[in-house]
Design a protein that fits this description.
The chain is built from 5 helices and no strands. It is mainly α. The longest helix has 13 residues.
Length: 78
């Protein structure tokens, strides 16, 4: 059986946007720093896509936060 993709988590997108804005980054700047495309960052922030773990790690590194800190930021959005 093929696993079904996960639904996007709007709280993740809100957390990424909040952390990005706290750091004075644009979506383009975050995309560049994380090695992702602008379209990917935009879709993540709008809760339109469920990212792979590697994508979340790249975002966390670009935002200079640990995965635990990103998780706490996501929890704060709920």
């Amino acid at each position: 059986m093929v696993p079904q993709p996960h639904s996007p988590d709007p709280a993740l997108g809100r957390a990424i946007r909040a952390l990005r804005e706290e750091r004075g980054l644009t979506q383009e700047g975050l995309a560049s720093a994380s090695g992702l495309t602008f379209a990917t960052v935009s879709a993540l922030e709008r809760g339109r896509t469920a990212p792979m773990f590697a994508t979340v790690r790249a975002i966390a590194r670009a935002l200079d936060v640990s995965m635990a800190e990103l998780g706490a930021a996501i929890d704060a959005q709920d």
